[in-house]
Write a structure and sequence with these properties.
Elements (H helix, E strand, L loop, with lengths): L6 H13 L3 H7 E8 L9 E2 L1 H11 L4 E12 L6 E12 L4 E13 L2 E9 L1 H20 L1
Helix pairs in contact: 1-2, 2-3
Length: 144
């Protein structure tokens, strides 16, 4: 039986909603005072609060990613089942049409059946390269 209040369950749900850019469902999954952070991102400041997080994801991810598929490779048991740690990868297509792949380590804390904390560590070089390739593609398309 799956514990729908566990970090592992909520982690899988969150990735599923991110794959399809379902920001309304992400909002329902987050605690009102949730915190999300991408420490290796261009802007590594934590986002605190459900509405702020969802607004951020709509703009940043919604404006960058056309489609995304995550593959969880390893999940690690934590002494506290509210926490989960996972290694995963992504394959996707950016809004520019460029293919995007990356690897991640994610940490999630559940509280009362909601995501309280989510931190995602990824390779920022791959993100910058994909964004740069998209800009190059867009530039060459515009100049034709």
């Amino acid at each position: 039986m799956i514990d729908e209040n566990s970090g592992k369950y909520l982690f899988r749900k969150l990735l599923g909603y991110l794959e399809v850019l379902d920001f309304d469902s992400i909002a329902e999954l987050l605690a009102p005072d949730a915190e999300i952070q991408f420490p290796f991102g261009a802007d590594s400041a934590p986002r605190i609060g459900r509405d702020r997080i969802v607004d951020y994801l709509r703009v940043e991810m919604g404006g960058f990613v056309k489609s995304m598929k995550f593959d969880v490779e390893h999940e690690f048991e934590c002494a506290d089942p509210a926490w989960t740690i996972a290694e995963y990868s992504s394959v996707g297509v950016l809004t520019s049409g460029v293919c995007y792949e990356n690897r991640y380590v994610g940490l999630l804390q559940a509280r009362n059946g909601k995501v309280a904390i989510f931190r995602e560590y990824f390779n920022p070089v791959r993100t910058a390269e994909a964004a740069g390739a998209g800009a190059s593609s867009a530039s060459s398309t515009q100049s034709v």
